[in-house]
Amino acid sequence: MNSACGYYVVGSGPSGVIAAQTLLEGGASVTLLDVGQECEPEIRSVVEALSRQPRDAWDPAMLAKIDRSAPEAGIPRKLCYGSDFPYAEEESIGLTQEGTRCLLSHASGGLSNVWGASVLPALPDDLRDWPVGPAEMAPHYEAVARVLQIAGAHDELETLFPYHHPPRKAVGLSRQAQALLIRMRSSRPTLNAQGIHFGQSRLAVRTESGEGGRPCQRVGRCLTGCPYGAIWNAADRLDILKRHPRFAYRNKIVVRRLEQQANGRVRIHAVLADSQEAVRFDAGRVFLGCGPLSTARIVIDSLPAHDREFRLQFQPYFLLPLLSFRRQPDVDREDLHTLAQLYIEILDAEISAHPVHLQIYTFNELAHARLRRAARWFGYFRQAVVRQLAGRLLVIHGYLDSSECRGIELRAFPDRAGGGSHLRLRAVPSPETGRKIGHVARKLLKNAGKIGAFPLLPLMQTGTPGDGNHIGGIFPMRRAPERFESDILGRLPDMPGVHIVDASVLPTLPSTTFTYTMMANARRIAMETLRHL
């Protein structure tokens, strides 16, 4: 099968859709190739029914149909309305993981179906090893902020992270978060002197009425799937792109490899997801935005480069429960969102040369479910135990810069049956990472009275490499790239017609939130490509 030559984007996650939108705004014609898995029809019908009703009218029996949680040990994997459709389980068969837990997605919208919607740019110092700097990234942060409709407050965090675009109205804080913020503000000079900075979270959540649906209704179901669709999702942006006259969408397409042609064009070799029938497309330019593992498989099979070991970067991650000094009553009945409520940024050279980013979650549906299960041991007193702990329990999700670990070794082995390569991932031990996380926890313990919560150090969980899927940097951008490095337009030397726009080309993965910087860089690559042609 042949298609007219033009610009092709592979993948409908955040980097793919922002690249496609940028190309369209620049006057190009765009075809987006995607597997495009969607949520099961029976679940979609439940969500659609709930979205048309106020929360008070929701049928508990309908809610039960979308409340399934992932039965996993350790840090659980998030589901979307009880469905695991965001994860490409069939492709994971071709993935061997030794001490890692990375994810693949073939979903429409990619992993933005289950992301945490937290949005912060990188600090200027975080980009010092990049071939593009803060001034070059700033206009793209601004443009992406308009797309994400970032909701946030004007507060203490602006001294570190000025807004690139005026924020939408902030999502209201829970009572637990308000109490912590008041406590920290009362000790702000002391905390700041120790390199501890804080403020309200910034979220890609709709807080004002307009195109796309209702604003956040604070129904407390953010971590299992908002029935009103108030959390930004690349699939919603894809639906908008589908209405553009110069945009074409082809789903159920699995791209296997790319062939750089002598005339500068690129031939895309793919298969139909349902039948595995071979198809091909001839493109003027290709923009790869299908996630680091899928991108790595396509690139390695295209070059080919099966005899080489690659390094996949990741953000070290940990989860630390806290117990607040003051209990807030009836938190299970409170109107609230359950995404990150507050951020704490630790800038302490004795811990790390890079910022440590902490996200504080207060009462939420997943923690409450785990608490109820754990309280069964208390028998008759379990309800009282749940009430007491639910009003005090907080959780920190913490992230370090990718330079604080040795990464993940990645090798690809060709599939003799003609499919995509088999990938083998192996975690490289990084004892220093655990020590740094311990230093962070002890710093929080030392300042517990000023923060207003006591860290439960014995309950801290260190994430498996790849948890949260904050991975990338396998083909890092360089000013003078070598063979398996990319230039500032995301191009490998052997593939000048292919632009990688996902996290695969980020030179480092700053600890601050992941998706915003990735999208800004994808937009920059797409726009600069148009300017250079």
Strand content: 15-25%
Structural class: alpha+beta
Fraction in helix: 25-40%
**Multimeric state of these chains?**
single chain
Count of DSSP strands: 20
Mean pLDDT rating: 92
Distance between the termini: 27 Å
Query: Counting H and I runs of at least 4 residues, what is the number of helices?
Result: 14
Task: Give unreliable regions as ranges.
Answer: none
* Spatial extent as radius of gyration: 23 Å
Shape: globular
Main beta sheet: strand number and arrangement? 7 strands, antiparallel
Explain this structure to me?
With 533 residues, the protein is of the alpha+beta class. It is 27% helix and 19% strand. It has helices spanning 14-25, 41-51, 60-64, 89-92, 134-148, 175-186, 188-193, 234-241, 292-302, 365-374, 382-390, 431-446, 448-451, 514-532, and strands at residues 7-10, 30-33, 95-98, 196-200, 247-250, 253-260, 266-272, 278-283, 285-288, 310-314, 317-324, 342-346, 356-361, 393-399, 408-413, 422-427, 453-455, 461-462, 471-472, 498-500. Strands 4, 11, 12, 13, 14, 17 and 18 form a seven-stranded antiparallel β-sheet that branches. A five-stranded parallel β-sheet has the order 5-2-1-9-20, with helices on one face. A hairpin with a 5-residue loop joins strand 7 and strand 8 (278-283). Helix 1 packs parallel to helix 8 (234-241), helix 1 (14-25) packs parallel to helix 14 and helix 5 (134-148) packs across helix 14 (514-532). The longest helix is centred in the C-terminal third of the chain and has 19 residues, at 514-532. The radius of gyration is 23 Å and the shape is globular.
